[in-house]
Amino acid sequence: MRKDYPVTILCKALRVSTSGYYNYIVQPQKSLSERDQIDSKVIQSLYDFTGGTIGVKQIAGELKENHNHIINHKRVSRLMNEMNIKSKIRVKKYFQSKKDAQSEWVYPNLLNRDFDASLPNRKWVTDLSEITVEEEKFYVSAIMDLCNREIIAFEMSDSPTANLVETTVKQAMKTRKLPDLTNVIIHSDQGSVYKSFKYKNLAKKLQFSPSMSRKANCWDNAVIESFFSHLKTEFPHLYATDNAKQVKKDLLLYIAYFNENRGQKRLGYLSPAAYLKLKHSAS
């Protein structure tokens, strides 16, 4: 309407002063500028703390749930562009375990990309991955409960063996205080350790149902793949590990951070621990 009528006429029709009108126009700009400065500092602090490894939606969710700072992810994106900072892109590195002469059991895909679980200890996903520290390679095995996306077991070895996988499964049982794994699906890729005779016997002994992704299809196990992607991106920035002997301790600290403090979009930006606590209180 300002294009069609002078401001003085509009103000007279609305019974407001022209000075009041111009104060109204100028004040939001001043407030917005001040808020930009505050939000930019908060975003920069969180960006620096994580080494730039989380995206705009993650930043907005983290600030809301853990810092009581409400900000839209589109606003985060704009301010990050103005500050000329960008989230680092996580590049997936695929790990292929050594060929096992006894690798011959391929299990059906029971999970079938249904990554939701209404109760704990119904659907677990697992994977093996390789981490290099000071040119020394380590192989880590993890199990996640899809109910609250918590890492319930995390083991490390200098070789990717069926023994490492067995230790991880038993650690998950211990974490969840289960006498056996009846009614639990454990989903993995088709790595040789999961197709081994030893893993087959382990499933029979502990009474869990093995499930496998289709061959060379990472999307069938996307949630645990995503966890390892985050770990490999965030871990070097959160823990300046340059000692091979210290790496396991620091990795366990990262797992504690992931479970207790790191908000996840799928969980409404709550941490796995906070989400499970909320779920228990609601039941």
Automatic annotation (TrEMBL):
<dbReference type="InterPro" id="IPR012337">
    <property type="entry name" value="RNaseH-like_sf"/>
</dbReference>
<dbReference type="InterPro" id="IPR036397">
    <property type="entry name" value="RNaseH_sf"/>
</dbReference>
<dbReference type="InterPro" id="IPR025948">
    <property type="entry name" value="HTH-like_dom"/>
</dbReference>
<dbReference type="InterPro" id="IPR050900">
    <property type="entry name" value="Transposase_IS3/IS150/IS904"/>
</dbReference>
<dbReference type="InterPro" id="IPR001584">
    <property type="entry name" value="Integrase_cat-core"/>
</dbReference>
<protein>
    <submittedName>
        <fullName>IS3 family transposase</fullName>
    </submittedName>
</protein>
<feature type="domain" description="Integrase catalytic">
    <location>
        <begin position="116"/>
        <end position="280"/>
    </location>
</feature>
<dbReference type="Pfam" id="PF13276">
    <property type="entry name" value="HTH_21"/>
</dbReference>
<dbReference type="InterPro" id="IPR048020">
    <property type="entry name" value="Transpos_IS3"/>
</dbReference>
<dbReference type="Pfam" id="PF13333">
    <property type="entry name" value="rve_2"/>
</dbReference>
<comment type="function">
    <text>Involved in the transposition of the insertion sequence.</text>
</comment>
<dbReference type="GO" id="GO:0003676">
    <property type="term" value="F:nucleic acid binding"/>
</dbReference>
<dbReference type="Pfam" id="PF00665">
    <property type="entry name" value="rve"/>
</dbReference>
<dbReference type="GO" id="GO:0015074">
    <property type="term" value="P:DNA integration"/>
</dbReference>
